[in-house]
């Protein structure tokens, strides 16, 4: 019995034998963890895994390291007299920040506003705000804020927060020589698909970029120029596949949510759901085709909006939205 095994005291027997009572004898020490297992755990923490080692690998890290190896070979074998690369590579040599507003003229403001800011507004709004919130809402349902309306597709992070973040980092860093930045849905999809699952991965990426900028600021562009396009193509393809899959999933789920309260076995409901799915697919296809064909996101956005208003339920949705706003204004009086 358990009591007998425990010496008649009724206690649970120890998994290890007791230490010898003789003087000079050492107590039995539990075996140390396997060193290989410890190395795997360290690698998993470094790559910010969530699943056990072996089920997921940081493919993005592997692809990046492969690209660095090929870039190193390219730079080490490239001749110095053709001017293709800025060789030799050197540490430091580039300022971390410069004041970039001193030489800006009124003509520069005009050109930047008409040819930069205005065309960028649809792209930034759609890709860097709305799409990022929808993608985070779809990829991380466990992180949705219960206080927010899940039907708006921004329960993980709100569009307001993302807009403020994009605006602040451009207002603060562009005058100091930084390039305009935004939160792209492609970047989020690629990072998620290639292994990143936690916010620590973004912290790791930011720290790595800052270290590269400080110590290799004069030569990092040379290394990036030698980075093989084939590896970049693979990474972009993976990110595009993740975006396409998520977009189709959101499209189908939006139709399912619209008919969640209807009788699924009713033939009229099935017909209406099929028609709604067809309309959504046609509108999404028109938007994607125009963007890919013309290379202009705002053209695709306008085309998709027009198709939604004419072919889809955009007009009816707009009328209902106006009525809700009107009733809300009347009730607030």
From TrEMBL:
Residue intervals passing through the bilayer: 59-75, 117-140, 202-224, 230-255, 276-295
Alphabetically ordered keywords of this record: Membrane, Transmembrane, Transmembrane helix
Protein name, as recorded: SLC26A/SulP transporter domain-containing protein
Organism: Odontella aurita
Keyword Transmembrane applies: yes
Gly residues biased stretches: 1-10
GO MF annotation list: molybdate ion transmembrane transporter activity
Chain segments carrying region Disordered: 1-33
Transmembrane as UniProt keyword: yes
Domain of life of the source: Eukaryota
Pfam families linked to this entry: MFS_MOT1
UniProt-listed InterPro entries: MOT1/MOT2
């Amino acid at each position: 019995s358990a009591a007998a095994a425990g010496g008649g005291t009724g206690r649970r027997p120890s998994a290890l034998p007791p230490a010898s009572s003789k003087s000079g004898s050492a107590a039995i020490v539990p075996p140390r963890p396997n060193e290989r297992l410890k190395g795997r755990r360290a690698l998993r923490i470094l790559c910010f895994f969530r699943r056990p080692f072996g089920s997921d690998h940081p493919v993005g890290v592997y692809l990046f390291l492969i690209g660095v190896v090929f870039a190193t070979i390219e730079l080490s074998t490239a001749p110095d007299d053709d001017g293709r690369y800025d060789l030799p590579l050197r540490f430091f040599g580039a300022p971390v920040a410069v004041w970039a507003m001193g030489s800006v003229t009124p003509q520069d403001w005009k050109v930047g506003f008409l040819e930069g800011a205005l065309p960028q507004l649809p792209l930034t709004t759609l890709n860097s705000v709305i799409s990022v919130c929808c993608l985070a809402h779809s990829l991380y349902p466990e992180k949705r804020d219960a206080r927010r309306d899940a039907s708006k597709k921004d329960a993980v992070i709100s569009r307001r927060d993302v807009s403020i973040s994009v605006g602040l980092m451009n207002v603060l860093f562009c005058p100091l020589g930084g390039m305009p930045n935004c939160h792209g849905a492609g970047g989020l999809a690629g990072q998620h698909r290639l292994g990143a699952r936690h916010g620590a991965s973004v912290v790791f990426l930011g720290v790595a970029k800052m270290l590269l900028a400080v110590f290799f600021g004069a030569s990092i562009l040379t290394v990036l120029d030698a980075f093989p396009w084939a590896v970049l193509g693979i990474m972009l393809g993976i990110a595009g596949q993740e975006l396409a899959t998520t977009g189709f999933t959101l499209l189908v789920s939006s139709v399912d949510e619209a008919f969640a309260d209807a009788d699924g076995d009713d033939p009229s409901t099935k017909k209406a759901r099929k028609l709604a799915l067809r309309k959504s697919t046609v509108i999404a296809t028109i938007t994607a085709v125009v963007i890919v064909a013309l290379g202009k996101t705002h053209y695709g956005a306008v085309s998709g909006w027009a198709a939604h208003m004419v072919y889809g339920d955009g007009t009816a949705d707009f009328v209902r939205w106006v009525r809700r706003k009107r009733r809300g204004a009347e009730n607030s009086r």
